[in-house]
Amino acid sequence: MKYNLLGNTGLKVSEFCFGTMTFGSDGIYKEIGNLDQAASENLISQAVEAGINFFDTANVYSAGQSEEILGQAIMNLGLNRDSLVLASKVMAKIGEGPNDRGLSRKHIMQQVELTLKRLKTDYIDLYQVHGYDALTPIEETLQVFDDLVRSGKVRYIGTSNVAAWPLMKALDYSFYNKTARFQSLQAYYSLASRDMERELIPLLKDQKLGLMVYSPLAAGLLSGKYTRENKGQAGGRRDKFNFPVVDEEKAYRILDVLHPMAAAKGTTVAQLSLAWLLHQPVVTSIIIGTKNTEQLQDNLKAGQVTFTAEELAQLDEVSKMAIEYPGWILDYGSAGR
Question: Taking residues 17-46, what's their average pLDDT?
Fold first, then answer.
């Protein structure tokens, strides 16, 4: 297992992060995983044995069940809490009240205590904003996050699902006001969707932020089970829950390249898709949310996959983004610089 620094910190996290959205059975999460305590502990044990030290959850996953299962598993398996890096998130709707969502001081202070209780720990290694809240001033959010870091309840802070301009605004606020700074972005990135390369990835490189990739297989679309012939009937969760959004025709063009490449290399489509991400220097850790041992073991083998220059060029070509303004004029104007 390889370990990378998280953003501009000295914290080392495994290149694979175990995502726990599959833990629990509340609401839409029943379609995503529906794993009980025993099944979850089995996967966590295998993940730790493989060298994974990084686990990601959120207060909204199965209405808190994911955090509860993870916290209980750490105790039941006798794992050393301090050797693990636990990440959780806050913002999403958790009730019907007017303050039961968002990034206000009230909501965050309430939710961090509940998350700590469910995880059975007295600190969260990485506490993340779970999206953009247009109603709450970013100053309020960053101030309460800074308070949590200073109190010791949170070690580092990160964000997720945000555009480049509010992220840069937040980083500037932290710099000029000397508050805790976002050290990572959790975002959707895959061969089937490279949209964040337009503005977010250049920002991450410039500001030295880590990137945690979620849905690296586009919710199973790049797992190998999907082909043009079984479109929408592969038996995966995407058949029922079309998330994240992708350009399906483009995805199938990518699969037309991945399937024969995997056969020629003696590997799997899923491993190639994950390995491509590991070959992107900006990627810190890939979140894998497996439902069984076979998926977990297959995904972990991606760390051993290598590409020739020709293979990488082939994947880059078939998955590249459409040209749009101002990208093309910036490329034109910076030629030779």
Answer: 87
Q: Could you report the per-residue pLDDT of 55-101, keeping only the tens digit for each?
A: 999 999 999 999 999 999 999 999 999 999 999 999 999 999 999 99
Active site residue ranges: 61
With 0-12 / 13-18 / 19 or more C-beta atoms within 10 angstroms meaning exposed / middle / buried, residue 22 is: buried
Fold of 3-333: TIM Barrel (3.20.20)
Q: How far apart are CA 28 and CA 11, in angstroms?
A: 33
Q: Where are the domains of the chain?
A: 3-333
Residues 132 and 114: their CA atoms lie apart, in Å, by 21
Whole-number pLDDT of residue 318: 96
Beta pairing partners, 90: 129
Least confident of 78-82, 83-87, 241-245, 262-266: 241-245
Tokens at 303, concatenated: 């760390």
Residues 6+ apart with CB under 8 A from 333: none
Of 67, 54, 71, whose CA–CA distance to 17 is shortest? 54
In angstroms, the first-to-last Cα distance of the chain is 37
